[in-house]
Each structure stands twice: as C-alpha cells, then as structure tokens.
Amino acid sequence: MNVLLVSQCRKNALKQTRRVLDQFAERRGERTWQTPITKAGLDTLRKLLRQSARKNTAVACHWIRGHDHSELLWIVGDASQFNARGGAPTNTSRRNILRTEDENDWHSGQLIHLLASMAALLHDLGKASQAFQDRLNGRLEERNRYRHEWVSLRLLQAFVGEDDDPSWLARLEKPTAEDDACWLNRLIRDGVDEYASDSAPFSQLPPLAAAIGWLVVSHHRLPALPATDEIGAQKWVGARAHLNAGNLPTLPQAITAAWNERVEPAAFERVAPYWTFPHGLPVTEAAWRERSRRLARQLQQIRSDASPLESPYVMHLARLSLMLGDHYYSSLKDQGRLNGQWSLDFYANTSNHQGRRRLSQPLTEHLLGVTRSVGEITHHLPGMETALPRIARHKGFKARSRDARFRWQDKAFDLATGLRDKSQRQGFFGVNMASTGCGKTIANGRIFYALSDPESGARFTIALGLRTLTLQTGQAYRERLGLGSDDLAIRVGGSASRALFNQQQLEHQQRDFGGSESRANLLDEQAHVHFEGNLGDHPLLSKAVADPHTQGLINAPILVCTVDHLMPATESLRGGHQIAPMLRLMSGDLVLDEPDDFDTADLPALTRLVYWAGMLGSRVLLSSATLPPSLVRGLFEAYLSGRAEYQRHRGTPGAPVHPVCAWFDEYGCTHSDGDDGNAFDAAHHAFARRRADKLSMQPATRRGRIVPLLAPSAHPDAVHQVVADTLLSEALTLHAQHHSVDPHSHKRVSFGLVRMANIEPLVAVAQALYRADIPDGYQVHLCVYHSQYPLVLRSRLEARLDIALDRRDENAVFDLPDIRSRLDSSEEVNQLFLVLGSPVTEVGRDHDYDWAIVEPSSMRSIIQLAGRVRRHRPALVEAPNIALLDTNIKTLKRQQAAFSRPGFETEKLWPLAQHRLETLLRTEEFDSIDSRPRLLPAEALEPTKKLVDLEHARLASLMVEGAASAPGQRRRKRRGEPQQTELGAYLFYRTPAMTLGAVPIQQQPFREDNEADSEFVLLPDENEEDFGFWRSDRQGKDERLVPVESELDRLPDEAIEHPRVTPWNEPDYLAALADQADAMGLGLERCANRFGRIRLKPNRAPQGWHFHPALGFVRKR
C-alpha cells in the first residue's frame, strides 16, 4: 500500500516525529512523507508515533488508492489540526469565532462544580484530630472508631448549626471570630455526647449543606445500613442487614455514625482523641479562607427549587469528581503540588520513602490541592467525551452482507442509520433477538456504528457474563473486522486465562491451511480511521488514565469485557473503582449480551447498571434470543428512569422522555418511541408474537422426549447408579438414530452431550459410567467437563472441544489427529464421544452436538442446551434428538426445592407442587424445543404447576412493579403469618434517594458469594515425576505457598480404567503441563505456578477434595 504522511506537529514534537517518520518514508516536503509500506509496517509506524506522542503531535496518514483517490487511515495526536478527511487548514486564527464547544448542554455543570469544590475544601477536615495525627505518626494502631470523613461531616454540621443555606454561606464568606469558634464549640461528638445519637446530621442540614455533607461522608465509601449479629453486635460495614420492602430506611436522614464505621462502646479516653483538635483546624488559614470565600459567594447565587440530593446525576458526578481529584492529588510526590507556607501541625497522608513511611502532604495544602484538581475535572467534564478515541469510516461495519443468513443485518443497519439523530436526542433502547448462528455478535456492533455520527465515529462496550464468551466475542471482532489492539480492548480479568486463550488462537491459526496472504488482503480492505483523542492533555482524563488498568477500560473505542468490569459503576461500596466504568458509560454505548443468562439474584444489580447507563447518557442494546418479556420490561423501565434523570440536566429543557426503542431479529426489525412501560410492553409483545409465529413455521431441528427416571431408594449411591444406567441406555438409543459415518473407517460416530445440574453428582455418575457394562461393538470416549479443574487442564479440554465440535464442515472432524487416532485404535463399530458436563456447557461455547440428554433445572437451561444440538447443521429431524430426564437427582434424593441452584424454585416462596416433567411441561414446550416458551408467557400463569410459568412469574415479581406476588407469600397471608416482602429490582430507580447509600449493594449484590475461597496450585516436585498440592496465602503482593497434601485424595488411575470407556480429556496432569510448557517456552515449574492454579472453597470441603486429572476436583464426603 502507498501512503502519504502529513505532520502538523509543533515545537519539539515536530523534531521527534521527523526522527520516526524518516526511518520509514521519504520526505516530499518539510512536513510530508510518502512510501510504499506493508500493513504490518504501517502498524509499527503508528505504534512508534503513539509512543512518542505529546500534546503538540499531529500526524495524518492517507492511503493513496489510485490516481485521483486517497483515503484517510488514521490520525495520531491532536485531531483538531485536521478536518474529517485529513485536510490541513489554509489559514488559522486564535480567535474562537464559532465557540461551538461553549454550546454544551450541561445545565447543572456549575452546580456539580461548586458542590464538588466545596466538598473538596471540607472533605478531610476530620484529619486534624488527635487520633488521626497519632495514626499517621505511628502512635495509634487500633482500628478507626470514627472515620475522618464522619468527623468532617460533624464539623460541617457544627458550623452550619440551625442556619439555612444563604445564612451559613454568608458566614463562611465573611467569617467572624465567633464563626471560627463554632466549628469546635458546637461540635457533636459521637461516643462522648449522650445526645449525639439523637442528632443525625442529615435530619438537620439545609439542602446545599446536606449535599456537600453527603459528598464529604461518602468520598471514600458509601454509607451502609448497619447490620447486627445474633447477639446484637454490629457486623462489618457493608454486611447484609435484615430488611424487606416494608421497612426501607429513609435516606439520607437515617445515616448515623454506624453507617460509616462499626461503632462499639468504649471508654472516654479511647474515643476523645477522635474529637480533640489540639492545633485547631485549617479553616483559619488565609489560603483556605480565600478559597472558601469565593466558593461561598458563588454558591449563594445558586437558585434551585429541588435539593441536589434528589438528583443522582448531580450527586454522583460531583462524587466522581471529588474522588478522582482526591486520588490524583494524593498520588503526587513533589511535581504538580501547590506551593505555599503551610501549617505543619497536621498532615493529610504519608508516603513511602526508601522503605520508610514519612509525612507527606500538609492538610491545608491537601485540601486546597484537591479543590484545584476537582475544579479542573468538573470544568472539563463536558468535553471529556470528545477527547476520547473513536472509530469511524470502517468498511466492515458498513459492508453489505453477501451471505443470505446475515442479510437481516443490513436491514438492522439501515433502520439504525435512520434513527441516528433521534437516538442522540432521545436516547435508545434496543432488543436484538436474532437466533443463534445468525450473527448477533457482529450485528450489535453494526447497529451502534450506524447510530453513531459517521464523522466523529463510534464508541461502544459489549458486556458479557462469561469469561470464555468474552474472549470469543473479542476475537470475532478482531478477525472479522480487522480491528487491532488500539481499536478494540478485551478485558476479562485473569492474565493466565488470556495467555492460554491467545496461545490456543495462535495454534489454531497455524493449523489454518487457508494461508495468511488472503487474510492480509482482508485486513487491508477493512482499513478505517482511528481518532486518537487527546487523553494526556485533558485535565480530567489525564488524571483518570494515570492507572494502566483504568486506561485500558476507558481508552479503546470498542471494549469487549465481562460485565464485572462495568458493575463497579453502581456496586462499588468503597474506593474509587466506580470512576473508570462511569467514564466509560458516559462516553459510549452499551451492549448487554445474554442478560437472561444471569442468575435471578444478579438481576437487581443488572437493573442498576442499565439505570446508570441511561442516567449517564448511554444508548443500550439487549442481545439474546431467549429474552423473557418481564426482564426486558424491567430493564427498559430502569433505562427510562435513568434517561429521565439525564434529560433533567442535559439536552433540551422540558423535552419529553421518549427514548427510541427498536427490535431486531433475522425476520425483520421495527421501532417505536417508548412513552412508558405499558406502551413498551405492548410493542414488545407484538414483536415477540410475530417472532414466535415465524419460529413455529421453521422445520423442527431439536425434538425432545421425556425419559422416566426412578430410583429404588434415596441413597446417593443408588441414585447415581440408576442415573448412570439411564444415561447410558439413552445415549445408545440416540447414537443409533443420530450418528454420522466416518468416511475412512465407515464406523458409526456421534457426539453427545449429557447436561447435569451439579458437579458432585456429575463426578459420581462419571465414576459409575467407568464401571458400567458396555455392550459389544460400542466404544465410549468420555469427557467430564465442569469448572473445577486446574486452569491448564480446563483450557486444554475446552480447546479440544472447540475444535472437534465445530461442525460447519460436517466431515472435517474425522480428519482431526485426536479423533482419527481414537477411531483407528478401536475395533468397535459404534464410537460415542460423550461430554458429561455441568451447566457451563449451556452457554459460552460454540459447540455442535448430534444429540443431548438433560437433567432438568429450568426451562431456560433446556432451551439454552438445545441450542448446542445441531448448532452448525440445521436440518429437519424426525426422531427426537434431545432426551429430557423426567426429574433430577435432587428429587430422587427427596430434597424439597429440587429445581433450584440452578433453577427458579425456592422452598418457601416459589415452590413447585410436582417435580416431574410429565406434569411440569406442556407437550408443545418439548416436542420442538426453541425459544418460544420464554418469549410469550401463558395468559394465566400457573407458577406452582408449570416450569416455564414459574420462571415468568418469578421474573415478573422481581422486575416489574405491581406484578403478582410469590405463591408462598399469598399462602402466608391466608394463614395470618408475618409477611416478608421481597425487594424488587425496581426499588432502586423508583426511589432515587436509594443511590445515596449502599443498601441495594448490601441487600442485592452482584454475584454474591459469602463463602471465602482460596487459591491452590499443583506444583511438580524436584524430579518432575510427581506433583504436590499447595495453598497460596497472599498478603498484598507477597505470596507464601503452604503444602496441604493432606487435604487432597488422589483417585487412582484404576478409577477410570475400562476396556470400552476411555477418557476424552487429559488423564495425566504432568504430561499436559509439559506440553503447555513446551508450547509457551516455559520451564515446568514456572508453567505450573502460572497455569496449574485453581480456586476452591475450603469451608465447603472440611475433609478436603478428591482429584483425578480426568475427573477434576470434587469435595470429599
């Protein structure tokens, strides 16, 4: 490719740019270079320019496509030096003639700035106490009895007294000696003054003071509802409290000292230092007075009918600004700090100097420095989005689909293009329900690309629930659209998982006989413009991206991540973890992929995320083929409430809140304005009905039948044996009806999946299969697949399945070395490749099986698992290819709530009357298995009698206000028993004051796990002939490995020896580890230390674990 490079750099940046460009291209002028170059060479040049870029750097690269045509590829540095096509200005003026950047729509920008700045000036006043200074100097070791931010709030309360906002601000502007004295003279001291418990600050403070006080007390962590244990003692801050919808606390009036720190009775001499100020306060210093005077004067000019505390948008952006300013200024060593004559009587923090802790920033300097940083941040919030990188004029997103299966994407793209301007004004809530295999992943990106301004480019995030699916989605975007690491970031957490995934991708590419030349041509055709943005020179972003992890989350135009990376925007109880995800939501759109795959307990947190996305201005797209209507409506109403809050402070004042709503699938697309939940519900129901009608006309590719399952007793051994016998019998039947013939050996081969609900019975059934009587002529290749494997074993297992179960070319599997060797080494005519898996098999893997057997947990899992059968080979089937066990192992063991964990049943509130699929399923729900039962609920739900009705009823009760309550609640009411009202996901956005505390996070946390886990590692011994079991104990960055061999029971190889059953996964840990070490060029011990790790829950396994490489870990009984 022939490129032209134009530099508009200034000062020293021009010299540096010339040094780089001269190595790659010939000069055609003082600021112009031209050269033929490969794609790889151009990528290297761009990376070098980015590494040396500074605020005066500006380089444009044009691809010369022909005699009369060139195309802008990218701009490094200051994009404002060029127009949208890469042209340089003829003349320039320093006069800001258009002043378009002044025309921002931030109606509350000044209020956010003043609240955050005043809070910054007050936020650490409590650090002047004797207790805090003693702690800095190492003279106080005990835990905080009262945190400094609570003391700061009490100091503000003391100064305000009983004044209204104009009065206390006037006193702060022109303080008298009496005003200076009231900071301490009127101070209410918790733990000392008896009346302190009756004087909650927010029940007395006027609106502006209360807003500033909330910012002060929450600048490290949100106030959390105190929780008590069995004897009435307060638990750790943030623990779940006993609470139901009938006794929600009133915020912020209910906040007391116990919401900020665990409060325990203590002697006067232990508490007094927290309320003693031997050197006074910084409020009497001249520099502090000057800044407070200016802010007080400006705050007196604020005129607002509503309290700022009633606006989550204002309060949380002000809190973000305060926390970011505090974090940034606290991190400064010397350069960038304020100069002045500061009092050295009190300090704000310490720093590490040559391994020793020393006092760092004087308190007055810190307060003023944070105030300055907060001012810079809030003043530049409106311009933050335009300073971030974006991706524009990308041919891959715009290209029309050549494959008929994907032409629906073109219609979706066209509809989104037509809605572009409207969605920017009104917001956007979309639903993509296209079937599996129709290209939803790429379609979601195309929809948001079409919604974005074609000149400025797109920014969006794809958030998924599973790590493996996140890696696959990111890889799909990179391969199909030619996106590099600058354009697309993948964040999953766990560097070891990423390293193994990348290694497998490399090996897969090396096996690809298509040739790299054709791929290189494809990438050239996907050339596009990457607008760099100007992060380093932006007063807000330069502070936020100082941390590399934060930079990775914010910087890339397209981010593919697990939803865990965005959840801190709403779930962060303490610290500044919400800053990066909030900035991401403020600056780009959001795809939520497979939101219905989350556990019911996680849906309130997902609802909060969607509310937050609407409040911060994002457009939202839900993507799943099995979205139940109550979940969609609940998330829409959360978005609508968030968007209403956004439009109160942004956009046209008084404009109605009608976000654009759109629905997409492979049969078409439609849109409407979402006026309210009922109107949206009607539009969604019409779309779902049309989709269900279309699905009913498709040939049945997945047919089910119910298989009786009875056990002679409830003893676990008897249950596991009867399940194993039933599975084997059904597997042989399904193999006979749904096999393929190996073209080389003419043997009958099938790939089947057995889904089981829980790991422990799964492993027990696997062991029973290794003891089973297999008929002559049959060979079973058994793969036991669940989450409890060391990382290297699970990664290699999944890589093996990914290759074998890609059936797009139906006969390619017979040429794989692994499959070929197994078929050739066995004389049996019938070869069954059987995956015995936990629910991890249902989602996240692009696998195609010939048939499946299901231990039922929910209708959702049945439908999801059915999507793995003939996934790549849709064709009409006559005989059932999915066997549904009539019940599950929990029923056979006579457990009360059998369809739970996983499942929707609970013992008290949501019980099922029967646990047999013969009564729980309607014939049409399993005769041809697809998403229809999830799309449209029955007109009259029977949640105690029908499995899918239970799911619809429970989701509606959780997500939709006013839905029918749980059957267990109604029964308790009839009996006159005390009612316990469940907390609905909607309580968070229906009551905006709930955002002022951590109550939703405490009561309905995301991915709650109350059981501590530990990390273990399997390390080879000195001779590398065996391995040991070690526990990893970490303290900060230091790790200590403790041998715990006594906790591991190694199952002998005889447990998996059977002439007609062979393991299809790795039976030898050290052999697998050695292969991985060789592939990555690592020593065996180093490879084990990185990839031989697993996280287990010791409290669940007091007797330790059984382990075999072919079976994984399972707790001992």
UniProtKB/TrEMBL annotation:
The keyword Ubl conjugation does not apply. Keywords: Antiviral defense, ATP-binding, Helicase, Hydrolase, Metal-binding, Nucleotide-binding. One of its GO terms (biological process) is defense response to virus. The keyword Hydrolase applies. SUPFAM superfamilies: P-loop containing nucleoside triphosphate hydrolases. It comes from the Bacteria. Residues 102-328 form the HD Cas3-type domain. InterPro entries: Cas3-like_C, Cas3-like_dom, Cas3_I-F_Cas2, CRISPR-assoc_Cas3_HD, CRISPR-assoc_Cas3_HD_sf, CRISPR-assoc_Cas3_yers, P-loop_NTPase. GO terms for molecular function: ATP binding; helicase activity; hydrolase activity; metal ion binding. In the N-terminal section; belongs to the CRISPR-associated nuclease Cas3-HD family. In the central section; belongs to the CRISPR-associated helicase Cas3 family. This is CRISPR-associated Cas3 family helicase.
